[in-house]
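Encode chain A's predicted structure.
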Amino acid sequence: MIQVLDRAIRVLVLLGENSGKILSLSEIADTLSLDRGTTSRILKSLAERGFVQQEAPRSGYQLGYRLYHITGHLVENSELTKIARKDVEALGAALNETALLAIARNDMRVVLYNTVPERSLVVRTKMEMPIFSVCAGRVILANYTPAHLEKCIIRLGLPDRDVWPEIYQSAHPRQELVNTLTAIKRRGYDVLDDGHGITGFAAPLFMDGHVKGSIGTYLPTERIKDEKTIIDAVMYYAGEINQKLKTVSTLNK
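Encoded structure for chain A:
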């Protein structure tokens, strides 16, 4: 057990020393003089717990989002965070509300970065929430490929009635869920009133033709004076980030 722990720590240290880089399985194994099978099992275990992550299936590895929870600091080596941080801050400043950058990991909406305004009443969201339950998660789901979405629904089942009551107004809630997500994808954003005085707005972020995450804002419903202004702001900064992601993708080819 101690030997396994030592190897896992060595993997994390190596990734930390190579902040900003994505290391392949073979690079990690060869650098640490470990068997590739052993290294693969360690990485899989660390990834399942959010300590390392892959930007795409079968890509290399970097430190993961859960280190945010341990250190209380931004995971600087996250490519998406580096690219989007200033726009998330600009969205928060423009609206004077909480703004966040999120991804989907292990069927959860995970906050990579967020800003909180200096005002008496602010909305603070949990770092992890079930992906069905919040708009920053739903807008990511809506842009999954049909096959990916189908696997997700099979794995998770339908959301509970108290999480997504609207789909149960239909005699076919599963199809209504798919239809609702399709509608979110078509309009390019989602708005969700949680029924407890908080409303969220979110738009998707893309790289290489795949949904990468989302940008959004949460605020007390009573402070919404002009919903279109909020939607326009979220969409504008989503567009700014998407353009930057497109540029990075082009440069990497």
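The two ends are 42 Å apart (CA to CA).
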